Amino acid sequence: MTSVTRTAPGQQTKNDLLARRYATLGPHSPLFYRQPLELVSGSGVLVTDAQGKVYLDGYNNVPHVGHANRAVAEAVYQQMLTLNLHTRYLNSRVVDYAEALLGKFDGPLERLFLTNSGSEANELALRIARQHTGNTGVLVSNFSYHGNTTALAELTTGLTVREPLGAHVRALQIPDVSGIAEADVPALLKQSLIDVDAAITSLQAEGHGVSALLIDPLFSTEGLPQLPVGYLEQVAARVRAAGGLIISDEVQSGFGRTGSHMWGYQMYGLEPDLVTMGKPMGNGHPIGAVVTTADLLDEFGRHNMFFNTFAGNPVSSAAGLAVLQYMDEESLVSKAGELGVYIRERLERIAKGSPNVGSVRGRGLFFGLDIIESDGQRNPAPSLTKVLIEDMRERGVLISRVGAHDNVLKMRPPLVFAKEHADMLLEQLELSLGNLP
Q1: All residues at 6 or more sequence positions from 304 whose CB lies less than 8 Å from its CB, including other chains
Q2: Which end of the chain is more exposed for a tag (fewer CB within 10 A), N or C?
């Protein structure tokens, strides 16, 4: 067995730490930036690296209510000092959280499965849909990611996976009206729905049928496209007519991220059968969930003994409950909406002043810019996008990129982001764009 000497962050070089990481985690797990960034602490929307440099975090949605949030940390600490077991024993903390979370939903979404992650939640939702419908076919977008289980890898279209796209999967091109003349939108919508019809017909013809449509309402991996009005509602209607269920993956768009609603699906007036969630709900503590109807939960429960040792434990529940309480106390959803409007207006002005910005993307506190070449052809510019991200790091602001061409700047800060933080990010972004070659 290899002996490892443990050192404090400031007592080792970055190359030493990188070598140790490669020797243990291997060289394939991705790292941001040309020179990987070693972070050692955080507070609110700020993080500090091993050399003591402080950065504005404009990217991370895991610390939903801020890095090192004291209310969440204290709730977890106190519950760890008290009891942590699984749900085969009664515990009020678990039920308190279930009631609080379900209180954020309306209509028939009134039952809850707790899981450890968004991947597990999506896997469970697909399992429920398959058992309920008797079908296996799944519709996803053609550049999406919903988790890393085998079943989810077989429908992953937005990341490199060795598993081929499942024969039971159809990938839809998500229409984007950004930069398109208004007169051309109806034709785009019509063709997109024709493609949906063809995908459903294909699944039925090959004996798969339709079990579910699985989407992230913001289509974040896809690059935050602007959908034609009515597109998603009409897709959902077609899926239901084919006997399928609607699964809304809210890992990215949920918990008030859009500013206008608590859940992303509410932007469209959709009524999903299953809602999945993960990362932000525990502010860094591993917790996920599937919210569904009483009928679907009862049907699944009658035929399956579903049990997970750590899902729904009192400590995870304490973390989740503290996040919801903090969001309510600080009015974070409405603040995200107000700040999102301000950011959008600023981004629109920045876009008009830069030949390298094709369009402004997103809403609320998930926003981005489509970076293009300045040759008038609107071609995606992934290399320039990478230059911007590296330059923003040097300026003390962390952002990333997303989209099929890796050319959409991805800005998705903790929900405690305030106007002064937005001003800093936007000012540095405008300067960075102005320095592009």
Answers
A1: 131
A2: N
